[in-house]
Description:
By secondary structure, the chain is an alpha/beta fold. The chain has two domains: 28-120 and 238-306, 3-Layer(aba) Sandwich (D-Maltodextrin-Binding Protein, domain 2); 122-211, Periplasmic binding protein-like II (D-Maltodextrin-Binding Protein, domain 2). It has helices at 5-22, 40-56, 71-79, 92-101, 108-111, 151-163, 175-183, 194-202, 250-265, 267-273, 285-306; strands at 29-33, 60-64, 86-91, 112-128, 143-144, 169-170, 189-193, 206-211, 237-245, 279-280.
Amino acid sequence: MKGLKPLLIALAVLCPTVAQAQDFPNRNIRLIVPFPPGGPNDIIARVVGKRMEEILKQTIVVDNRSGQGGVLGTDLVAKAAPNGYTVGIASAGALAISPSMEKVAYDTLKDLQPVTLVAKIPEMLVVATSVPASNMKELVALASSSGPGSMPHLAGELFKLTAKIDMTHVPYKGAAPAVNDLLGQQVQMVFLDLPVLLPQINAGKLRPIAVGAPERVPSAPDVPTTAEVGMPDLLTENWYGMVAPAHTPPKIVAILNKAAVEAIKDSEVKEKLASQGAILVGDKPEQFAAYIDSETKKWAMVIKEAGVPTTK
């Protein structure tokens, strides 16, 4: 009988985790969005989260926790209990760029469990209508972005490296003031998420030069890709992915992944997010982990070669 005690103790320790995975989810799930309401990250999270709610038959509560370019909200996910009841949809900035730019309290691939890549949103390069350039070859201008260390900032730095030209980075606290200054001729060009620029492009107030995606996007079919204008290495897509705390049980990760991918593939979800210029993905956790790793290395190289100031 003495020999049975260790086995019984081990079973007692394992059973709660197994049971937890088997009946997951049985209560509300908190979905952290590390940006304010109304932006692309928030809209994507709410649309996908709503469909997941229907699939999982449990309420998903969106919790906006903005700050430090998405880092603060992402850190909350990393520090949450690894039980599947707190997840987040975070951006490329928080998951792949900020760790090379500044000291963050988490290691993306050690403290977070990738669930799935949700969507990509191409960055578009546009110029003010006063700039005498209608294509990439003619473009010689200053650069502006929505903030240091953001995807638009590093898209501009990658453009400088690729085109071998010199430009001045003008940081802004957000996309809206950057667009306003572009319209007001205070800056000459900008790299920004596609949905932010489309209304001004359609109104003829901004001139598109290229989109940093492998293929042309349906919402701007006449705008060439960077590859088409001779810069195949200038791929600048912002992206958003679902993550959970590290050590979340694999069975729970699998349940979350299945629900998220089903939501992402839903035709109504695609239709609702079309206005955001979102290219919906939905892949396996290991594929998303590999993508985060490759993106982290890519932007770390850009930061180093461009001499972008960091606070690490």
